[in-house]
Write a structure and sequence with these properties.
Layout: E1 74-77, E2 89-93, E3 100-104, E4 106-107, E5 113-119, E6 125-131, E7 136-138, E8 145-147, E9 154-157, E10 169-173, E11 179-183, E12 185-186, E13 192-199, E14 203-210, E15 215-218, E16 221-224, E17 231-234, E18 245-249, E19 255-259, E20 261-262, E21 268-274, E22 280-286, E23 291-294, E24 297-300, E25 322-324, E26 327-333, E27 339-345, E28 350-351, E29 354-355
Antiparallel strand pairs: 1-2, 2-3, 4-5, 5-6, 7-8, 9-10, 10-11, 12-13, 13-14, 15-16, 17-18, 18-19, 20-21, 21-22, 23-24, 25-26, 26-27, 28-29
């Protein structure tokens, strides 16, 4: 009889978990802490939070014309094109500052070209030189190319040239018919005639012609008479410690008067004096150590020390700095208000309290 082997069968039994139907109905039933969670339906705990969007600041509303907008450039061409036969102009405003502009077509001096103004791509005026072509010229006053031929330029002087005793007029006619004039005149002192003359046919120029002794220039010509007396008087000379006045009469006969005055910081005096040719002049002079400018003069001010250049830069004029030859004396204010000076030799010149 044979042997029979029996293999045992192992069965794993998973315990069943009973879940109430209320845990699947999508409602929060009694005993549940949430919908289908908590109580008999646990674990089913969920933390819920809401993220609030960050608030955005309101941007300012820009209203045209309110002053907050950048001016926009504008440009208008009256003839709408680069047409040399039509006289036009362009006008508009600049974008940088809003200022207006206007420019007109014009002619070259020889009449061969019209200088046409147009609006470029940036709405700015642009000038283009356009030839008029055969049988056409650009006439001054017309500012456009028209039918015509160029003329020989001429220049005439009514007094015949360098004639200081006659007031003349120079007339120059350009090739395109344009006319220029120049008249003889006088210098401000009446000593010279400003004689207008022709430089060939290309230009009108002016030269000085001296009037002879016993004559003065009047109305563009030398006439009998004496030039106005020139005078200049200074009540204090070149004295910065005294307030003075310069007065007199200039070459044209007009009177003048200027009084010494102080700088805003009180460290300098604007000193007026007479030059050798009897013309008034002024120089800014520093007051000395322990002085301030008051009422047009440097006056002693004890216990006052003002140094506007505490770093003693020789290239900067400080209060109280002064020159002696090439030596620069620079003011130093001490804590107790006393004044000392440091001396520097300038490599070049020492002028008005600084090296040059």
């Amino acid at each position: 009889m044979g042997t029979v082997t029996v293999k045992p069968t192992i069965t794993t039994i998973t315990p069943s978990i009973s879940v109430p139907l209320t845990c699947k109905n999508g409602k929060k039933d009694f005993g549940e802490t949430g919908i289908d969670c908590g109580g008999k339906c646990a674990p089913c705990k969920t933390t819920t939070f809401t993220i609030q969007p960050a608030s955005q600041p309101k941007l300012p509303q820009i209203t045209p014309g309110s002053g907050t907008t950048q001016p926009q450039p504008s440009c208008t061409d009256s003839d709408q094109s680069n047409d040399p036969t039509i006289a036009g102009s362009v006008s508009g405003t600049y974008s940088s500052n809003g200022n207006s502009f206007r420019a007109w077509d014009t002619c070259s001096s020889d009449g061969r070209y019209v200088i046409e103004t147009i609006c470029d791509s940036n709405n700015l005026p642009q000038f283009i030189s356009t030839p008029c072509g055969e049988g056409h010229i650009c006439k001054q006053g017309e500012h456009a190319c028209q039918s015509g031929t160029l003329q020989e330029p001429t220049c005439t002087d009514s007094d015949g040239g360098d004639n200081a005793s006659v007031a003349g007029t120079v007339t120059k006619q350009n090739a395109n018919g344009g006319v220029q004039t120049g008249k003889d005149g006088c210098d401000p002192r009446g000593i010279y005639v400003l004689e207008a003359y022709c430089d060939g046919t290309s230009a009108i120029k002016v030269k000085y012609l001296a009037c002879p002794t016993g004559e003065i220039c009047k109305d563009g010509a030398c006439q009998p008479g004496s030039p106005p007396e020139i005078s200049c008087t200074d009540t204090d000379g070149l004295d910065k410690n005294t307030a003075g006045t310069v007065s007199g009469k200039n070459g044209s006969g007009a009177t003048f008067s200027s009084t010494d005055h102080c700088s805003a910081d009180g460290l300098f005096v604007h000193e007026y004096f007479c030059k050798p040719d009897k013309t008034p002049f002024s120089e800014k002079l520093p007051c000395g150590a322990g002085q301030l400018c008051q009422d047009g003069a440097c006056r002693d001010s004890p216990n006052i020390c003002i140094d506007t250049d505490p770093n003693n830069n020789p290239m900067v004029q400080g209060g109280g700095d002064y020159c002696e030859g090439q030596q620069l004396y620079q003011l130093n204010c001490q804590p107790d208000g006393t004044q000392t000076f440091s001396v520097t030799t300038c490599s070049g010149q020492c002028v008005n309290g600084e090296c040059h």
